[in-house]
Amino acid sequence: MTAVYAKYNDSRKPEYRLVTTVEEGGGLFSLKRAATDAAAGFLDSLFEKHRLLVAAGFPLEPLEPGAHAGGVRFDYLEGGSLDGRAFAAVRAGDAGSLREVFREYGELVGRVPMAAGDAGGGFEEFLGDGFSGATAGMGLLAVGCLDLILENIYEDGGGFRLIDYEWTFSFPLPRDLVLARTVMNTYYKYRAYGINRLLPAAELFGLLGVDGTGTEGLMRLEWGFQRAVNKQVQPFDGFRDLYEKVLFEPYEGGAPLAELRAAFDEQAGRLARAEEELGHARRMLADRDAEIGSMRASKFWKMRELYLSVRGLPSRLRR
Fold it and tell me: How confident is the model at residue 255 (pLDDT cuts 50, 70, 90)?
């Protein structure tokens, strides 16, 4: 087996630290291994998480895990992800296609069963101090899968499959948190492409049915999750300021990459046309040179040259 890709989660706490590789061995497959002894239980939990998702009638088929070489093996999907479609739309400056990706995503999340009553205590307990009552009044997904983001959703055989579900819980999660963290993840990755100009985040939250006035509370829940699983996180104020800028402020690092790419493509087109015109001129010149060469090789040209050379002789030598 040969590893062709590796992802390390060194920022995580030891009990959650895994290594994910894509390996070649009779075909491509992905393999997750525990990076620390403390993470062995977290790795083994993938089998139970798969069972939970299947038993709950999850609207996406989760990849089935299998024990392999001291790790957990998954099939490698060759199809495209929703994230890939979103990125293509952003690069093309196609707001309509980007909306369509998120519309499909929203419909998928909308098919996840909802929990009855106020059952958010499990998540609040996982987040730790300062989060008691933080999910009160929120609609809760009965299947608590935080990994339901665009990059983990692949189109396969006319349906959708979930390729990663490490962060699936046995308790419900706030629906709006799952939706908001997907928007946060996507807009963070593609901010330099001007995604929040193409499709303002406030409009997208409305499209997904997320209350835009509650985004700070959702950011706090996401920050609490990051605090629970990582060794170090910045204070909440810094986290909130970063994502408010990512979501709601125009990119300040110069022109968005999508605009730069469009300008580059325009210049490249002009250069291609100029090269084509230059090639045409060169071909005309070569044809003209060939005509002249052919003319100079003709009998007429040789007689002309002889006539001119004779005319150039002194008159006494022409007698």
Answer: low
Question: Can you read off the two tokens belonging to residue 138?
Answer: 């929120």
Q: How close are the terminal C-alpha atoms of the chain, in Å?
A: 96
169 CA to centre of own chain: 25
Closest by CA to 105, choosing from 123, 79, 88, 85, is 85
Nearest to 178 by CA among 206, 127, 143: 143
Alpha carbon distances (Å) from 8 to 20, 53, 202: 7, 25, 33
Q: Are residues 228 and 127 in contact, defined by beta-carbon separation less than 8 angstroms?
A: yes
Residue 207 exposed, middle or buried by CB count within 10 Å (0-12, 13-18, 19+): middle
* Model confidence, pTM: 0.77
Contact 166, 148 (CB under 8 A): no
Mean pLDDT of the chain: 87
Could you count the other beta carbons within 10 Å of the beta carbon of residue 22? 16
Question: How many other CB atoms are there within 10 angstroms of residue 223's CB atom?
Answer: 20
